[in-house]
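Submission sheet (multi-component)
Chains listed below:
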Amino acid sequence: MTEKSFKYVIVGGGVAAGYAAREFAKQGVKPRELAIISKEAVAPYERPALSKAYLFPEGTARLPGFHVCVGSGGERLLPEWYPEKGISLILNTEIVKADLASKTLISAIGETFKYQILIIATGSSVIRLTDFGVQGADAKNIFYLREIDDADKLVEAIKAKKNGKAVVVGGGYIGLELSAALRINDIEVSMVYPEPWCMPRLFTAGLAAFYEAYYEKKGVKIIKGTVAVGFGTNDNGEVIDVKLKDGRIIEADIVVVGVGGRPLTGLFKGQVEEEKGGIKTDGFFRTSVPDVYAVGDVATFPLKLYNELRRVEHVDHSRKSAEQAVKAIFGGENGTPVDEYDYLPFFYSRSFDLSWQFYGDNAGESVLFGDSQPTSPTHKFGSYWIKDGKVVGAFLESGSPQENKAIEKVARVQPAVVGSLDELAALGLAFASKI
Ligand SMILES: Cc1cc2nc3c(=O)[nH]c(=O)nc-3n(C[C@H](O)[C@H](O)[C@H](O)COP(=O)(O)OP(=O)(O)OC[C@H]3O[C@@H](n4cnc5c(N)ncnc54)[C@H](O)[C@@H]3O)c2cc1C
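Outcome: structure written.
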């Protein structure tokens, strides 16, 4: 079997790898110095598109349309860009063994890759109901969504089950985006989740009340406070219904499960320090092992603004952490100083004609402001989170670019609240616009 050697290797070919590659090119990486090794069959792309326009019946997104770095308004790196820059893009190649001591990676078919500097960018994998032994969870037409192959299977099922019924298991942003996409395809959709409201990790009850009512208005049936405990199948092994813990049985031609992810760190277990489920790094994404960096979903890094270690599973961080690691690598080689990562958490989602942005930390008390009536024609509303008398987080639905910039600034500056929380709520966006 072959052995290939590179100065730099990125394992994983997702969002972080793509943004890292662009930064390597900017920093003047030389031909044949960098390799990206990816399990996927395609060059790095903007993963968030998979639960949005990729599933739309009209205005559908397809590659090469959404290769990185279009998601942040940057240049689109087509597959040919990599060889043009002398970067080896090694696709359809899963690394199954990593030995950090000997700086060696082994692929599923036994190829050996040697590196001097490694960037771990393996992202996350979805949590599967089969992991918990849920009865019938291996039935046909039960889908998960992480990679483009998963999205292609879902697209085929949507076509095959025209006007059919779908159950979406999970009430996070993936569940919300998928329910909307299925509904736009004229599928009858029920969403099932155990929590008292959707997106409980971020949404307050007040925010969630809008989205739940809006979804109901769009024809999505919401079933809360219970979980899927089994799936019925027909003679072909296809799912036909979802059994709920509360005894109800919901018919389904398609089931999509979005119950969370896990960082893919297994290859490096026992070889590198871990923290909070991820690979521990410093503010330059250096791990505990010399010459090994970790970026994107797998990194647990110092979030300077809050003075704590965190792992962030959002696309903005995957892009910025990748760029930071590459800058740090070149800074180290050239002796140019690089500032420590100083990240402001940012997360967004889009579904139907809705679009929200969130900046900062959803800690402490919260206030809801604006017009959050589900029947409102503008549905412009938001929330501030207040901790120790300061606004530390801000959420806005249907904001203009300027308004989104204003809430971003609020979360970064953390202004003190003068007056009562009711007064803050009454000021609403005007508070952010003044900062
Ligand atoms: C459907 C979907 C929608 C999303 N929407 C949003 C959104 O709206 N907003 C937002 O902020 N975030 C969103 N996210 C999250 C965001 O996409 C991730 O945080 C981001 O992709 C993480 O980047 P990454 O490079 O760390 O991992 P990934 O982009 O997941 O890339 C990891 C890559 O590594 C490869 N890999 C893994 N293991 C191996 C191995 N052993 N050998 C070789 N290759 C390997 C994988 O195949 C993959 O190509 C979404 C995620 C998904 C799945």
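Remark: The pocket of flavin-adenine dinucleotide is lined by residues 11-17, 37-40, 47-48, 50-51, 94-95, 121-124, 145-147, 174, 264, 267, 296-297, 313-316, 318, 347-349 (CB under 6 Å).
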